[in-house]
Amino acid sequence: MSGKNQHWGSTLDDFLHEEGIYEAAKVEAVTRVISWQIAEEMRKKGITKTQMAERMHTSRAQVDRILKAKGNVTIETLQRAAALLGRELRLELV
Questions:
Q1: CATH classification of the domain holding 80
Q2: Which residues, 6 or more positions from 69, have their beta carbon under 8 angstroms from its beta carbon?
C-alpha cells in the first residue's frame, strides 16, 4: 500500500466534516430512521400503503416517497403520518 490514508483513525463524523457533507449525511440518516419507524408502525398495525395514502388524503406515490426517504418530504408530512399511526414526531434544537 503506497501512502498513508489521511482518514485512518478518524471518526466517521470527522471524515464527513472533512468532506463537507456532515449536515447532508445527518439529514439523510434522520430521515431514513423516521421513514423506517413509520413503516414499522404501519406493519405492526397492518396498514397498507394504499390505506395510509387514503388516511393522509394523498397519493400512494407520496407514501412511497415517505417510506423510501426520497424526495422533498416535509416535516408537516412526517408529522401527519406519525399522528395517523398514533405516534408523535419530535424535533428539538440542542
A1: 1.10.260.40
A2: 28, 31, 32, 34, 35
